[in-house]
Amino acid sequence: MLALELDKAEVKGFMGKLLREGMFDGFEVRTVEIAAKTRVTIDGKLEAEENEKTGFAMWEETRPLVYEIIKLSAKPRLVKIVFSWKGEIHTNAAALFLNLVYENDSVTFTTAAAQKEFVLDKSLDIAWDEWVRGFFAKTGVSVIDRE
């Protein structure tokens, strides 16, 4: 598991990109939670007729809704998004998660990986964490290891 923090000077710009640009459009959305005046929770699971596609909505489909909710409310105290990645990272990957938390004017990320078959080695976690670091480097997002 990896725990990263966004450079504080980049938080406002990053949140704008997250909500208006396609940086995370290749990710599925498991859940979104927004706390402002009220708390809004979005379950990314697709309804039965859509479920054959992937099982979860893509960020590209969910992003406009999240943007409108945030735009129409007071500045959120909290935004939590659980992303998942369907791309081939490791043969034993059942699910790969990237969790984003915006709170107290800071953004943190954590990773998690679920295995298809139980094994003691950490090669899946290592591969996923390296992929996430590469993703942030490629997109120009400055993250540091969280202490």
Tell me what the structure shows:
This protein is α+β, with helices and mostly antiparallel strands and 147 residues long. The chain has one domain. Helices cover 28% and strands 33% of the residues. It has a 7-stranded antiparallel beta sheet with strand order 3-2-4-5-6-1-7, with helices on one face. The longest helix is centred in the C-terminal third of the chain and has 17 residues, at 123-139. The chain starts with a strand and ends with a strand.
Radius of gyration: 15 Å
| E-strand count | 7
Give the proportion of residues in helices: 25-40%
**Chain-averaged pLDDT:** 92
Q: How many domains in all?
A: 1
**Strand residue percentage:** 25-35%
Query: Span from first to last CA?
Result: 13 Å
Largest sheet: 7 strands, antiparallel
Give a concise summary:
This protein is of the alpha+beta class and 147 residues long. It has one domain (3-145). It has helices spanning 11-20, 59-72, 123-139; strands at residues 3-6, 28-35, 39-43, 78-85, 93-103, 106-115, 143-145.
Write the layout of secondary structure elements.
Blueprint lengths: L2 E4 L4 H10 L7 E8 L3 E5 L15 H14 L5 E8 L7 E11 L2 E10 L7 H17 L3 E3 L2
Antiparallel strand pairs: 1-6, 1-7, 2-3, 2-4, 4-5, 5-6
